[in-house]
From TrEMBL:
The gene is guaA. It comes from the Bacteria. Keywords: ATP-binding, Glutamine amidotransferase, GMP biosynthesis, Ligase, Nucleotide-binding, Purine biosynthesis. This is GMP synthase [glutamine-hydrolyzing]. It catalyses: XMP + L-glutamine + ATP + H2O = GMP + L-glutamate + AMP + diphosphate + 2 H(+). The keyword DNA damage does not apply. Residues 2-203 form the GMPS ATP-PPase domain. Homodimer.
């Protein structure tokens, strides 16, 4: 639409003017907000922008490669892109850890450590003045008035560094946040306007700690792989069935339950996948989505047949409250 067109034009001009010849660092998570922020900045300052994508190995199926395809050297945008493949480090630190809060803390702290080390390397090269963030209007509101938006975002979301570190590394105190006044649907419109692929623009919301909090209990590479495969099948079937996933959040998680089943002549003792689908307008309250029985059955059949290590599929009926949307 022409409004978004104007937003893009005005924002790119304003960013150019503010940044001048300086360099900008952005933590790219692959989510819609940081993706659109990256493209806007790339239009404004090109190679003066460096994006660091810390791939924690806890993304959805193929997502790390999709981010690289868009922003890497073979992609369409003019910027510097650094992908840090940190999966092994994350799995090592998460080994044996089952408590959800502890898992979140480990994942958050590792991000700061890895992204911080990358930022240090870059700032040692010189020329960096600003950090950028994909903060959007609801993030600002969530944290109350003032400039607390960035604070909430940085510890609730993957993408930012603690303020002390920002200062220590010599960045300006105030991050660049071009989407600060926009709602999610407006961010998506801007994304389309900028020519970002639809699969990125309409991506399902995904928590910062990723599949780390969708694998209930200990996180292992095998369990993450199972969750990725089951989740991909689930979303593919929902799409095929024409279910509007934009009305909420739809994903597969892996329970910590193993149970007995039978496949052919053999007894199995495998994991139970939990399919979750909620309808929500604000993510504060939510109702389980009424997915047609036949669609759920197709998902069940495909997941059990195609994903090794799964012999049971469950649909989660819990609303929020008393449940949360995620399982951990
Ligand atoms: P819950 O599970 O609290 O989730 O009902 C509400 C919404 O927030 C997302 N979520 C997170 N997003 N970092 C994030 O960026 C997190 O640590 C996190 N935990 C939950 C969740 O996916 C849902 O959209």
């Amino acid at each position: 639409t022409w409004q978004m067109n104007t937003f893009v034009k005005d924002t790119v001009a304003a960013l150019k003017e503010k940044i001048g010849d300086d360099r900008v660092l952005l933590g790219l998570s692959g989510g819609v907000d940081s993706t659109v922020t990256a493209v806007l900045l790339s239009k404004a300052i090109g190679k003066q922008l460096t994006c660091v994508f810390v791939d924690h190995g806890l993304m959805r199926k193929d997502e790390g490669d999709e981010v690289e395809a868009v922003f890497g050297p073979k992609g369409d945008f003019d910027l510097n892109f650094i992908r840090v493949n940190a999966g092994e480090t994350y799995f090592k630190k998460l080994k044996g850890v089952t408590d959800p809060e502890q898992k979140r803390k480990i994942i958050g702290a590792l991000f700061v450590e890895i992204f911080g080390a990358e930022a240090k390397k870059l700032t040692d090269e010189g020329g960096f003045k600003y950090m950028a963030q994909g903060t959007i209007y609801p993030d600002v509101v969530e944290s109350g008035a003032g400039n607390g938006g960035a604070v909430i975002k940085s510890h609730h979301n993957v993408g930012g560094l603690p303020q002390e570190m920002v200062v220590e590394l010599g960045f300006d105190q105030t991050p660049i946040e071009p989407l600060r006044d926009l709602f999610k649907d407006e961010v998506r419109k801007v994304g389309l306007e900028l020519g970002i692929p639809r699969n990125l623009v309409f991506r399902q919301p995904f928590p910062g700690p990723g599949l780390g909090i969708r694998v209930v209990g200990e996180v292992t590479p095998e369990k993450v792989k199972i969750t990725q495969e089951a989740d991909a099948i689930y979303r593919e079937e929902l799409e095929k069935a024409g279910i509007d996933m934009g009305k909420g959040q739809f994903f597969a998680a892996l329970s910590n339950l193993r149970s007995v089943g039978v496949m052919g002549d053999d007894r199995t003792y495998d994991y139970a996948v939990v399919l979750r689908g909620v309808i929500t307008s604000d993510f504060m309250t939510a109702e389980a989505a009424e997915i047609p029985w036949s669609v759920l059955q197709t998902c069940m059949n495909r997941i059990i047949n195609e994903v090794k290590g799964v012999n049971r599929v469950m649909y989660d009926l819990t609303s929020k409250p008393p449940g949360t949307i995620e399982l951990e």
